Amino acid sequence: MNDPYQNNVNQQLTEAGEYTYSQDGGGQDRYPYQTNYPPQEEDAASDATEGADEDEQMYEGEYQGVPHPDEIKEARRAARLEAKRKARLAAQQEEYDEDNLPEQYETIMEDCGHGRFQWMLFVVLGLALMADGVDGFVVGFVMPSAEKDMCISNSDKGLLGLLVYVAMMVGALVWGGLCDKMGRRKCLIYVLSIDLLFSFLSCFAQSYGFFVFFRFCSGFGIGGSIPIVYTYFTEFLQMDKRGEHLSWLCMFWMLGGLYASFTAWGIIPHYGWGFAIGTEFQMHSWRLFILVCLFPTLAALVGVFFMPESPRFLLESARHDEAWMVLRRVHDTNWKAKGEPERVFTATNIKTPQTQEDEFIEIQSDTGTAFQRWTVRHMTMLQQVANDTTSVPPKSILILTLYTSFLSFSYHGLGVWFPDMIKYMQYEEYESKVRIFHRERVERFHFNFSLVNQVHREGEYIHDKFANIEIKSVKFEDSLFENCYFEDIKSTNSFFENCTIKNTVFYNTDLWQEKFKDCRMENTTFLHPKKGCHLNFQEENDIVIYLVSFLGSLAVLPGNIISALFMDKIGRIRIIGGSMLASSACTFLLLLSFSQGAVICWQCLFYGASVAAWNGLEVISVELYPSSKRGTAFGILNGICKLAAIIASFIFAAFVGITKIIPIFLAFSALVCGGLLALKLPETREKILS
Predict the structure, then answer these.
(1) Residue 316 CB partners (closer than 8 Å, separation 6+)
(2) For residue 59, is pLDDT > 50?
(3) N or C: which end of the chain has fewer CB within 10 A?
């Protein structure tokens, strides 16, 4: 028996598992116990149930089409299970999408192709890398001139080189981490701007304190360029192009060394290329050299302004639309240059990885100032960088740390040892030609010729005149000067020890108190002395040092070419291991070098063999770590390189002139250990950027 009221009720199941019923009047009722039926008598019963047994009594609502409460509970339970199933499927799909991002990004980069855009970025980032290479040579080239211009002692001279390397180490750690939070492009602009500003100021610093401060700040800036440049360029390359083109990029560091060596050779020895404003401000040739070295930094800074942010970083930051626009720009630029402008960028739905909740703490405007909010945001960012630094996978970072330490220790240690050893050989050769005069007596003689590389012992000089001459590497010991006249004397590395000087006049000379050691002065007059530090640039700036640096930089060209051509063919591990073992053989052969020419020859061979290991290390470093920590990990490794270089420079320099066996043995051992350790590194040739 059908109730006519039942035909006007539509039964529906909601997502929550409840039944709803719609009446013709538009009203909606929820059962049970919420009906608008007319009231019935308490004992009333339907015809269908009249006379039925109590056990067989039918539920009254069932006759009217109303579900039983147990059915409602069962429906709700089923709805909850269905909702959980859908949530579980959605989470699995989200996890799959996140894991699938590297493959999708690689597919998109292959669709964009490799062409004009990558080559433009290659030149811009190469100039930034070249600026880092130039800065690595600046201090060493200007120091012989600057130490005389600003009266720098030997201890202070060593402090300058140490502080610059420390600044570069700190800069690599800080900027490597920040580029994972702020972006590759933005951090590179900051890095180049800091280097440009403080390098420019160092050109005009007249005091040693300001010069050290400006060079320290410049080193802090440019120290972050290497982690950023390689991370930035990697994320625009497809898998089969990474090894080759990152190796080509390394050539710009070589070009930086060539540029610095060539310009130093052409500018610094010309001391007259400058000007002075009074006695307080002087602009000599070595300052002009620093100014010329700013050109690569300036060119790179201008170029970076026209480059976009890394799309991979944008995706990691959940900035999907910006990443899509950058990838479309890469695609259109490349295919338009190839003569196919009609090709359409087909990627429409780029998966964005799930990002952590923003941990920045905002202060409301009514409780804090804009400066307080800015401070909190940036302090929290630095805290995140520190957390990322400590969360880098320990096993992989440990292996790369050991390998980096071995390579950097030997490379930079020998980099200090080579020029110092050449200088020591020059000094030994010079000392072997010294002329010794013993108990000579010279009376009423006019010295109008230069005195060079001589030792005068127990001599007597009576009524003699020394005028318009140069005294270089001359030592007077236990000698007597009586009624002598010195005028317009220029001295270099010359001293008077245990001498007696009577009734003598020094007019317009640079012989000041430091030149006389334990001497007795009687009625001696100094008129118009040349005070301060002076230098004969033509003699002190030996072109051999510039030539050695130039040849050492040029020698890496074959190694760069070989590593670029074979990096993707034979793999990173074989390149690294073979390069380090070949370099160790070159260091062992240094034991057979007994002349300047032999040292220069083995230096060039060592640099040419070891550069392939550097290229392989840089390629594997950017491929091994995920995009969210790539800059941080590379910054750690680069900072370790600088630390190993600082330690090596002190150790290797300490043995110059004592023995060459220990430095060579240390370098040989480090390179062999590094070559064997390279076998533990993972091969990343066919690895998609994670």
Answers:
(1) 353, 355, 627, 628
(2) no
(3) N
Which one of 480, 510, 527 terminates a domain?
Answer: 527
- Phi and psi of 431, rounded to 5°? -65, -30
Sheet of 460-462: strand order equals 441-443, 460-462, 480-482, 500-502, 520-522
Question: Is residue 224 pLDDT above 90, yes or no?
Answer: no
In a domain, 678, yes or no: no
3-state SS assignment for residue 492: strand
Kindly state the DSSP code that residue 49 receives in the 8-state scheme.
T
Number of separate domains in the chain? 2
Query: What are 583-630's pLDDT values in tens digits?
Result: 888 887 777 777 777 778 888 888 888 888 888 888 887 777 777 778
**Exposed, middle or buried: residue 586 (CB in 10 Å: 0-12, 13-18, 19+)?**
buried
Query: What are the pLDDT digits (tens) for 282-315?
Result: 677 788 888 999 999 999 999 999 999 888 888 8
| 460-462 and 451-457 beta bridge pairing | unpaired
Domain with residue 473: its CATH number is 2.160.20.80
**Final residue of a domain: which of 495, 527, 559?**
527
Find the helix or strand (DSSP H, E) in which 507 lies: strand 505-507
In a domain, 153, yes or no: yes
Q: Which position has the higher pLDDT, 578 or 1?
A: 578
What token pair was written down for 590?
Answer: 């240094």
